[in-house]
Design brief:
Layout lengths: L15 H4 L10 E6 L5 E3 L2 E2 L10 E3 L2 E5 L2 H6 L2 E5 L5 E5 L2 E2 L14 E6 L4 E3 L2 E3 L9 E3 L2 E5 L2 H7 L3 E5 L3 E5 L5 E4 L11 E3 L2 E8 L2 E8 L7 E7 L11 E5 L2 E8 L6 E7 L5 E7 L1 E6 L2 E6 L9 E5 L8 E2 L5 E3 L1 E5 L4 E5 L4 E3 L2 E8 L9 E6 L5 E5 L3 E7 L2 E6 L5 E5 L6 E2 L9 E4 L2 E7 L5 E5 L7 E2 L5 E7 L2 E6 L7 E4 L5 E5 L3 E7 L2 E6 L5 E4 L1
Length: about 525
């Protein structure tokens, strides 16, 4: 992994040795005297401790100067790069970062020497002649600093800055901000969630897991949601997963062994009290009229759909579909035997269930077809006759990946008007937003490349960086980048434009509505995108 504090090309921390062309020399550069601020400075609410900071804020000619380190400039919504003609380009960008203090054990001198570099600079694409600036860009410790003048800070970067005799200088940028949520240090060791004004996390004490929630405006007001004893018979498994199902907060965990154990699913109500709703190896889908249970226990068996009308006991559910079919499984046949994997594509639209199904026993060979089942009449209809890996329904259209070629297709919900959408072999994820279709393709390292489908021309690679995961939440595409990339998370708006790139490396991302939570890979702290 590259050390972003000292990257010299294409980043905000730029060494002067790479900025000076062969025709220039350091002799032409003017040496100046700079001092540390004798007043408090905050950057987006973060107090800067200049005494022991490797790259402190500086004062020159009574103007405060900001260091353009990798994290400082992205904290303030700026990007820089070296242009092809060796100019330094500084511009507003859709970027953000946690505050990084750059603390050392070496105390800075109150006064130091800096230089005024002579290379060409572009500010938001416009050339700046540093030799003619009253308050020029300067260099200190091989890092570029720029002046906090009205011209640069307000006019070019659209920052707000306020001076107060008692509180000092406050600088605030208008890019999205990444703030640390002051949850207990252990919260990031398990799954976290944000839902309807509360943060949810799990605390493990001995052989006991406890789920808590805290209001997002009062983190000290802890409420217990649910607790359970951990089953250590087959190893100590404390993991708990939060997810959103039909705009409700659910959690799940596993008890017992792989074969004899089961998954447990709980739901949190509006009062913050959890109840266990499902147990076993299964998938389930809820609708206003009832809940569908898809048995995915081993060994797989046919006639495995159970419909439970709303208000009825689960034990009084009714089998639906054709008994000679097995539902909710994708079945692989490589000539050496059958392989089964649970499919989560099942979707309920009104009174109709859309589900992946195969003939049972599976040896008859009619595998992985999409069926529609009416829960009222039990009318069962095959609507896609090709073998399908998985599917989803968005905006009255059916999207699916075929087993034969692994390309993405779409059709009407009845299977008519089929068309191929992807140029590449689809892996793991695809979705539609505002009429645009996106999908992922696995690279040689098993990571994902995100593409935007285009029926008229070649599909577009959205991110140059590989991804570990992608999700679509509230009209935003959230990509968690592979470890070691310059950014940890990138978010697109519904038009496919960059909403924000986040420097922090993320071990997990949870999103609901406008809330996006990031778990830091470095220290497991919880960040929220504001």
């Amino acid at each position: 992994m590259r050390n972003k504090m000292f990257l010299l090309i294409g980043l905000c921390t730029i060494g002067l040795s790479l900025m000076v062309s062969p025709k220039e020399s350091f002799a032409a550069e003017q040496s100046i005297r700079v001092t540390l601020p004798d007043f408090v400075v905050t950057l987006n609410g973060n107090r800067v401790e200049n005494q022991y900071r490797e790259y402190p804020l500086l004062v020159y000619k009574d103007i405060t100067y900001i260091p353009m380190t990798w994290y400082d400039c992205r904290l303030l919504g700026l990007e820089t790069e070296i242009t092809p003609n060796d100019s330094l380009s500084i511009a507003k960008g859709r970027v953000t970062s946690s505050y990084v203090p750059y603390q050392t054990h070496i105390k800075n001198l109150k006064s130091n020497k800096a230089i005024i570099p002579t290379f060409e600079t572009l500010i938001n694409g416009e050339r700046v002649d540093n030799s003619k600036e009253e308050y020029p860009l300067i260099s200190f410790k091989d890092v570029i600093y720029f002046p906090l003048t009205w011209k640069f800070a307000h006019d070019e970067f659209e920052w707000e800055y306020v001076w107060n005799n008692s509180e000092g200088l406050a600088i605030n940028s208008n890019n999205p901000q990444l703030k640390t949520v002051d949850l207990p240090a252990f919260a990031g060791e398990n799954d976290v969630a944000g839902f309807e004004g509360y943060y949810y996390y799990t605390e493990t004490v001995g052989n006991h897991n406890q789920i808590y929630r805290v209001p997002d405006n009062n983190l000290s007001n802890k409420e217990r949601v649910y607790d359970y004893d951990l089953d250590s018979s087959y190893g100590f498994n404390k993991h708990l997963n939060f997810e959103i199902r039909a705009n409700e907060l659910w959690f799940s965990y596993h008890v017992g062994g792989a074969t004899m154990g089961s998954d447990v699913y709980g739901k949190v109500n509006d009062n913050g009290i959890a109840t266990i709703e499902q147990r076993g190896y299964l998938d389930f889908k809820s609708a206003p009229s009832g809940t569908l249970r898809i048995d995915q226990g081993v060994p797989p068996g046919g006639n495995n759909l159970l419909w439970v009308p709303t208000g009825q006991d689960a034990k009084k559910g009714t089998s639906v579909g054709i008994p000679s079919l097995i539902y909710g499984w994708h079945i692989r046949d490589d000539g050496r035997g059958r392989g089964f994997s649970g499919d989560l594509s099942t979707t309920i639209v009104g009174d109709d269930i859309y589900v992946l199904a195969s003939s049972y026993p599976t040896e008859t060979g009619d595998l992985n077809k999409i069926y529609k089942i009416n829960v009222t009449t039990n009318e069962t209809e095959k609507i896609v006759n090709d073998e399908v890996s998985n599917f989803k329904i968005k905006n009255d259209k059916l999207y699916y990946v075929k087993d034969a070629d692994h390309f993405l297709y779409s059709s009407n919900k009845d299977g008519t008007a089929e068309q191929q959408l992807s140029d590449g072999i689809v892996a793991n994820w695809y979705d539609e937003i505002d009429g645009h279709v996106y999908y992922t393709v696995a690279n040689t390292k098993g990571l994902l490349n995100l593409y935007k489908a285009d029926p008229a021309k070649e599909d577009t690679l959205v991110f140059k960086e590989p991804l570990e995961s992608v999700q679509l939440v509230n009209d935003k595409i959230i990509g968690k980048l592979a470890a070691g990339e310059d950014y940890g998370v990138k978010i697109l708006d519904k038009s496919g434009n960059l909403y924000v790139a986040i420097t922090d490396q993320a071990s997990d991302v949870f999103a609901y509505n406008d809330l996006i939570l990031i778990v830091s890979t470095v220290d497991k702290s919880i960040k929220v995108v504001k």
